[in-house]
Amino acid sequence: MSNQFEVTHGLVEPLGSSLHLNGVNFSLYAPKATQAYVCLFDKSGHSEILKVAMNINEGGIWSIHIAPLNTGALYGFRVEGEYNPDNGLLFNEHKLLIDPYAKDLFGEFTWSERHYGQMPIGTKSTVNNAIDIPKSKVSSIDSYEHKKPNHRWSKTVIYECHVKGTTCRHPKIPKTLQGKFLGLSHPHFIDHLKSFGVTAIELLPVHAFISEQFLTGKGLQNYWGYNTLNFFTPHKDYLVNDDINEFKQMVKELHAADIEVILDVVYNHTAEAGNDGPILSLRGLDNLAYYRTVEAQPNVYINDTGCGNTINIDHPKTLQLVLDSLRYWVEVMGVDGFRFDLATILGRSKAGFSSAHTFLQTIAQDPVLNKVKLISEPWDIGPGGYQLGAFPPPWREWNDQYRDVIRRFWKGDEGIIANVAKRLHGSFDIFEHSHRGPLNSINFITSHDGFTLADLVSYEHKHNEANGENNRDGHSANYSFNCGAEGFSTDEKIAALRLQQQKNFLLTLILSKGVPMIAAGSEMAHSQGGNNNAYCQNNRTSWLAWKDSQLNHSLTRFIDDALKIRRAHSAFKHSVFLDDIDERFTVKWFTETGDTMTDSHWHENSRQFLMYSLLDKQNKHALLIVFNANKKSVSCQLPPSPINAQWQMVLSSVNNASLTTHQDAPVEISAQSSWVFSANLEDVANG
């Protein structure tokens, strides 16, 4: 068989497999290995047809060029070297390894004892795992050359969604496309997004991932996808015809509809798990380069992720792997930005987190990556793990303090009015110290992690029994409330209050300074039955139902109405915090009597009513926003309009609200309701 191929030394760049001349160049980083091999497989992926020794080069890079060979060729790596787990060395030539730079994979992953380095414990495994691991696949895709929306942050409205769960039950999308990348770019789903003002979708992980063995043993799956197998390959279950170009086609079609694509990426850990995890790729190439270990204990992983291992971003080749992956998804696949899961890890060295960490500095000067949208989840479970507000420009950050205080406000908690005001106006106390503005805050009420919006107002306790952990998993501090009954209720008053409270949350979110993020299903009252950690629920618990009652839902229309108001007023697009000497914008806070709030009002523990005006002096337009979290209605005197026009009610969370205002007459603000008045209704109508 080897006589069919011509084998030459090969090039050290680029890493991975790449077409070169009439064959394929293979390049692999494994500096501590004594020998590396490329193993070719037949089209079935079952039979190994060629094993070729690679050549060592400067910097610990192995290379080989094999011709003739073309796209579609299946391969893997085997690496010889010292197997000494106590010293963090896990070389085992019996384990076929996935190329960290593989752009495509072939075949299914199956859990078996063959993937483990020691079997039984303490004895080096000599079992070949090739039958149970996907093969790397040679591919070649041209750069993305289509026009991108390039929306400013001030225009951005994010819709966080799951590739499968969002469309797998959509009745108007063809069965073959449901739950696939191409389902998200189908005209019916795009029309849905456009119908209520979405400008960007943020996809839960789409890098190739696998389910953890402890889940498969319980008959469950990793549904969310935060268990990465490879940083370059699209998850194959989301493809229709096993063609990775389908991802690129999805991006192109969404861009044509003026919708951006942001990826939720997991560069903090991998599916190789902890000390007793499998050897699938990085562990078998250079375990100590790719993963953090306890100082003087190279056999013990640092677990700042809670998932067993932690990527060693301080190592140059690990940093290169992450950056090369990011550039690939931008330049070749066409995406517009990234949300980094547990992003604190990417800014932490041995000395702790630093906003000047090499990774963050490299991103800032990279001519490709510094132009895309960058969002951090600014926390992990490691030392100094909570870093909200500490990321440098141009990063945006998930603002969980916004989430929690707004939830507490509408729940009826007392003593938080001053904090609510800070969150409404962009969280200046969090971002202004580092010369950042309100648009650095990604505001959200719910996300994939936690209760859905409908469940937030229907459950006071989590109900995660289906996860198989005796309801111990998931957050317990949810600041949720059930409006009078736990779970599903046929009581019309409870149902009406729940709908009104969902509108309260949505109106607050959309009319807060910052970038709003809406979790998929919020627009149609999607429920997970009280499960607030549905990471392993690849079933109707998580999938959007798209029932007749959910199509063109009143919440969808409400979001659209609120976003029209947001788009019509420049205060929400302003990139700096408003202050008392702002030449264009004025913010004033009022009591229910229409008087200006004083320091004593801000410190009233029982105050659950907020009213404030936003004046745009340049456009001569004003808004008056009223939030009443009290369980009783409040008689309210609206303050005088700051321009020569009377207040008119333009939106309310109260169903079929109708309120005629007269300057001198008080108005009745319903219990647990929100209201928006405008002194220039025409602008709102044209929003």
From TrEMBL:
Glycosyl hydrolase family 13 catalytic domain span: 190-566
Q: Which InterPro entries match?
A: GH, GH13_cat_dom, GlgX_Isoamylase_N_E_set, Glyco_hydro_13_N, Glyco_hydro_b, Glycogen_debranch_GlgX, Ig-like_fold, Ig_E-set
**Record bears the keyword Cytoplasm:** no
Q: Does the keyword Ribonucleoprotein apply?
A: no
Sorted alphabetically, which SMART domains does this protein's record hold? Aamy
Q: Which domain of life is it from?
A: Bacteria
Q: Gene3D superfamilies per the record?
A: Glycosidases, Golgi alpha-mannosidase II, Immunoglobulins
Keywords attached to this Swiss-Prot or TrEMBL record, sorted alphabetically, are: Glycosidase, Hydrolase
Q: Which family does it belong to?
A: Belongs to the glycosyl hydrolase 13 family.
Tell me what this protein is called.
Glycogen debranching protein GlgX
Instruction: State the organism of origin.
Output: Pseudoalteromonas marina
User: What gene codes for this chain?
Assistant: glgX
